[in-house]
User: Fold these one by one.
Assistant:
Number 1:
Amino acid sequence: MPTLEISEETLKKIKEQLGEDLELKEIKSMEDLIGETYLFQCARYIYYGEVKAVNSDYITLKCASIVFETGDYSNKEAEDKQSLPYNVKVMRGSIESFFKLKW
């Protein structure tokens, strides 16, 4: 997997836009996500939760929510985020993108 290198000036601009508490973490495999909270944009729904486990087929999220309306991603909370009752298994093949938010 290629590594993206950016200049200090670019990093400074990113921090200005996203906030000074920007946390940079190198992710080499999906297992590096365990213990962290992410938003997963999937083929049909958006899921948000802490990654509990990863295998070749799915990612298990605990304290998970389904997000029906995100609103602006810079908001402190989603406009419509509904808690799910149990751990959720998100099929890896349905994930289009994932990222951290301040929700």
Number 2:
Amino acid sequence: MRIVGTKSSTFIIGWIAFVLGILMDGIFYGINAIGLPYVGLAIILFTIVIYLAMTPLQVKMQRFSKMTAVIQPEVEAIQAKYKNKKDPDSQQKQMDETQAVYRKYGVSPTGSCVQLFIQMPVLFALYEVLNRIPGYITLIGNQLTDMVNTSGFSSFFNTFVTGLNNSTLNQTMTSSPQTANYVDTLYKLNSKEWASLLQAAQGQDFLSKLQGTHAYVTKVTDFLSLNISDSPMAIFTQAWSDKAFLLMLVAILFPILAWLSQWMNYKLMPQPEQKQGQQSAMQNSMKSMNTIMPVISAVFCFTLPVGLGIYWVAGAVVRMIQQLVINKSLDKENIEDIVAKNEEKVAKKAEKKGVSRQAISRNARINTRSIDTEANQKALDKKAELAERLKKADEASANIKAAEGSLASKANMVAQYDERNAGQKRSGGKKK
């Protein structure tokens, strides 16, 4: 088996990256077979496939957002009801009543979070694949491995990288000087570093092979005349020095597209309705994130390698198209039909646990107007139940024959005397 670049060894993330890496390798092998061996194109196709596979999760998240617009007024009514009640009993009741509202509509309060938790490991694994291309794309990894294994190159390359003003590359090479790490480092060289490497290799026996490797890497990493291993910031800085204004424009295009596509994504997301002047803390937080995140996306795409920027922008564009299609589909759905379907699902799950469908239907009819009445009724039922238990306890105690002269017999005599006096008072003082 040929040695290629490193693969992610992170728990769970590494396993997902391994599967995604097989997909990435297959995509690159396919486009290479038709004469288009470009990593940038592979990243775009790879991103489309991944996001299409996650479409069901995206649909669930958007449907949850739409349901939130219906649920929120009832949840806010419960919050207002217990606003000034901080005792544990009231807090528990608030939680129970809130959960009852969510059960009524057949959704989970953490529904959106669950979808995000499912997606997050996948997104981290995607980053690992894109950051370790030689480890997952066999054709590129083998090409670079051949170069690294060439006689005399490893020691020369180690000395060269140590002299570079690049702490990331230096750390990788010095911490673990293995073939796979040499392969990763060779792939991550930017245009300026490649030029320095070729200059330093003048007169070496492996110069011709190194030039061939450089030509291959330059070809597969080219995207709109940019090296996907370079960052737009580095490209912009170099283009500014060379007065290459067109290249500057292309470099700055990535962060602009990242900001614009991310901003449009948030605009297309369904927003919960709210009364004028009322805005929850969560809604305020989401509004702030919708403003800040596009800016952060632009900063990331400007400072990170172009390859990651391609994924970031391509992913945002795919999500935007998904959003338009999903919104159009959800707009055709009747909210009452969605509630009915959710209630049906909840009823089936409950019946499996032994809860009757009638009980589920009764709970589903709970609304904020009936919460107070129902709570009062429950309190009255509890009082009646307690009174009945006390009555039975008294009757049982009266029937117990205590030993003559015992404390229990004297207590019974006192109780009987009190009962007779109470009876006389009720009858107007006349003895029976």
